[in-house]
Amino acid sequence: MSVWKYEMKKMFIFQKGLLFIILFIILTMASMISLDRSKNPDIEMNASSYSFYLKQVQGSYHKNTEQFFASEADKISNAKVALQEASDRYYDGKMGKDEFLAVTGPMENVLEHEKGFKLIYDQYTYIREHPANRYFMYTNGWDGLLANENLDLLWVVLLLLLITPVFCFEYESKMDTLLLTVQKGTRYHAICKISLVFLTVLILSLAIAGIKYGFYQYKYGLFNGNYPLQSLPYFGTSTKESSLNEAFMWIMAGKLFGSLCFAMLILFVSVCLRKYAITLFVCTALILIPYYGLRLESTKYLLPGPLAFMVSTGFLRGNEYKNNPFKDQMELIFREVSLMSWSIVFVVTVCLSIGMFVVILIRRTNVWNSGLRNHGRKVSTLTLILCMMVTLLSGCNSAERSQTSDSYNYSSKQSFENSRYLFKVDETDLKAIRLVFIDKQTGEKRNFVRNPMPSLTRVENTIFGNGNDVYYMKYDSDKSGVIEDVTRFSIIEVDTTSFKERIIFEKKLSTDKSMILGLSKSNNQDANFYLTISSFFLDEHSLYFIGQNEIHRVDRLTGKMTVILKIPASTNVAFDGRMIYYVNDKSQMVKYDTNTDSEMIIPDLITRFFILTDTELLFLNRKDQQKMYSMSLHDLTLRKITGSSVQEFHCDKQYIYYVNKSDLQKHRMDINGENNILQ
Amino acid sequence: MVTLIGYEWRKHFLKWTIVFAVAVFSILNVLKIYSIHGGNSLLADSSWKELYSQMYGQFEGKITDEKIGKLMKIYRPLEQQTADHTASTTYRNSNTQLSNVYEDFNFYRWSYVNPMKYAYDYKAYAHAVVTTANENIIFFKSLNNGYEARKNAAVAELFQGRTITNFSYTEMYQYYVQYDFSSFLVLLICLYGLMSVFLSEKETEMDTLLLTTKAGGAKTVWAKLLASSLFICSICLWFWLIDFVAYSWIYASWDAASSPIYVLEEYIHSALNVSLGQYAALSAVLKTFGMLFFGLAFLALSYLFRNALVPFIIGLLALFGCISLQEAYMDSGHILVKTMNPFVLVVNRELFHKAEYIPLWGYPFPSYIVALLFSILWGTIFLSGLMISVRKNALRKGGG
């Protein structure tokens, strides 16, 4: 027992093992908390409407499922049409308020869950390919826990730190020869050391598995563990029959086995080579080189050794193919590991481990060799260097600024005007649509984006302006292979006094660009959203992106994205620096406060189209035959601007331009509604 | 001093473990290059390779209207036949060269038409860049934005007269310039090899004894540093040579070396006007420079400890930190952050594939110059740290 106690004391206290374990647990938890992103962020952002549908279909695919989806899709499209009709009838005075509320209430409830329906429908298209073993379930928790094959580098490092000194320490301090002369210093001592290492690895592995399970259970919830593994698209093509709970147990058992083998490998190498540097080098190379060097991901599962088991998720994956564009053929990118191959790899690995164990015992009875002394490590230096690394990895933040804001209108997203220039999209040459600016004094038209090297960059035709700062968005591509691949999305700020450009936001989109080690990955779902942005606006803390029927807010400091608003497809959206204005499904004007995240319906303002200026809201009044009105933003008073119905209108800083509904003539008047002239 | 360097070299680097590691890693390196060829090359398929080499004689060399006409004569009918996706997919039709008309079309499209079109259009593109840059000079001068005017002048000068006159098989270079695996192997070897340079004397407690000798102290440290640099350079030279030879041999390609670097589409905005062959050499030099920096960092790290365990692990983690930072900022517009990371010298396509400038005192400096300056700065900090700690120890231990 005293040998055990002494070895434990040496490993955890003298060799600072306990400190390394605590550091490892802190770093693991910190990285989980700060770096974990849900696999499908849309589900998290639309949790309530998604769970509304999930509750109705959860579980296996029934014969009624198809009918359910068809009827729900009908219900949603009918509700949209009916709501529009009811609003029209109500605002035309053909329907009373009570009746209107009674009719539209249920429709609004249906439409409230529209995004959730889209999400569950995506899942349905996946499940119906193979309904026997794919179930409807909430996948983010299990995806986070199981659906990755990343080698836990911190875990590898911890094992190296804990296990390398077990034998090396004695070789270094020349104690090995002395030890062999005492009664319990030979095989018994070696077995004690190995048992202690195995016990430590076992406990730590279980603890880490527990922490990970607990984290995903707490953050997302790990429901429906008895559902088939194939319910997760990551394992979609797998032929192995297993439930999610069983898969978790298998993967954890695999990781534990892999870690034990790795521990044995470290002990074996340290006994054979006796020096720290070479032991660390050999063990690192044996793990990392096959992990990063093998082209086909699945090849590493055919190599006997600890690596395959340390990333054992892959044993449960099925065949996966990717389209090869040069030959129009599907190419294998992951080959399923058959039970036979697994058994062979497992047996060979076990034999190797037993062989290593035997060699350790033999060498601990016969070996006499010189070693070196160790005076301990400088913990303070280590902590300092680790802190420096954390600081290095923490990235950069964009600078902030504060000023009053110009108003933004989605309908005029292709133009902006400040005191000196007019910025707009020039569509005169349809083959080269570009952003231009016009000097208001001279009338000269020039390119707004001054980059002389335009290839591999796509500038989107939308701008946002605020005083002298004008912003545009662009996508950068890479052509390192034969196919062009969009790699980055950026928002660029242009100071129009000097036309100096500054990147205020950047997002990496590419997921499969050639990487050195592939340590920095981006989320596919996130990337898809950034590719569908139609316009944007911003304030000093956040960026707001208008995507498909949604407004997303992205924190400029942390990059965290949330859905703040769901908007009808064809509405205008306006922003005055703090408030977002939009028209809801019932043609009511809604004001959203971005500081308090609260919504307010502006009373008595019914419209389908509006424009926000610096002081008022100009809109076509649905209650007064589409005549143009304005509402003051200060005291909310209404003022009629045109006596006749208006088809459409737009405005700039000076004038309002509109088309009269009765004669379709174009008119122009001053921004205050005076001096109406026919154009 | 030379004897001292030779002695240090023999003591630390002429070990069977290092020789064995270099040999094994060299084989792995060649296998990796072979697998890259198998996975990515258009000509990995033997039928494509055969047809390519048959056709290559007709189209290689100077791009002329005659050659373009000849290629279009083959390509246009294929394009028309496959346009509406109704052509027959019968295997080995009498009038097809590969398995069917679609494969013929894909072959000509990716192997000949697209690269030749790019090469042909490049002159006009470069001219357009120069024109825009010249317009920008006038524009920015009118706004008193001196820096942007100077930057555009640099771009105009860089792109002036760029043209691609020859068509050659460049696939080897396309993948060679992106190859990083050998750098990872070199870094691992350096991490191991350099650990013992300072530690071996500490472990045997010879460091105190060394200080009493004439050549001890700073002189020994310099000899160790120079021997280490020599080791790093020779390991780099060996691996870069293997890379180049293996690529040339596996892709069976030697004749693109004189083509300009911008013949690769990724390098359309290349920061340099050099040929592919020159670029390969330059890139190797810069990679070696990056390795020297990391070597110095590993040495400085090992000096702080008394055995290899913790410095090896910290070195490994620092390496991963630099790599992940580099990956996160790959292709980023935040050029300064990118250049501050010394690992960018190792992945130096990031510095050369696009002409990027950083303002220093109002003047545009190419990003590769700034990256070099940063590495020199970091290197100097490490070196002076090392030298200061050596002197302090020498005095203390020498007195005691």
UniProtKB/TrEMBL annotation, chain A:
Question: Taxonomy-wise, where does this protein's organism fall, top ranks first?
Answer: Bacteria, Bacillati, Bacillota, Bacilli, Bacillales
Which UniProt keywords are given for this protein, alphabetically ordered?
Membrane, Transmembrane, Transmembrane helix
For this protein, the parts annotated as crossing the membrane are: 12-35, 153-169, 190-215, 247-269, 276-294, 339-362, 382-399
Q: Which organism is it from?
A: Paenibacillus pini JCM 16418
For this entry, the protein name equals: Prolow-density lipoprotein receptor-related protein 1-like beta-propeller domain-containing protein
Q: Which InterPro entries match?
A: LRP1-like_beta_prop, WD40/YVTN_repeat-like_dom_sf
Asked whether the UniProt record includes Transmembrane helix among its keywords, one would answer yes
Identify the residues that the record assigns to the Prolow-density lipoprotein receptor-related protein 1-like beta-propeller domain, covering every copy: 610-676
Automatic annotation (TrEMBL), chain B:
Which superkingdom, per the lineage? Answer: Bacteria
Record's keyword annotation contains Transmembrane helix: yes
The alphabetical list of record keywords is: Membrane, Transmembrane, Transmembrane helix
Transmembrane segments annotated in the record for this chain: 12-34, 181-200, 221-241, 279-301, 308-326, 368-388
- Identification of the protein by name: Uncharacterized protein
UniProt organism field = Paenibacillus pini JCM 16418
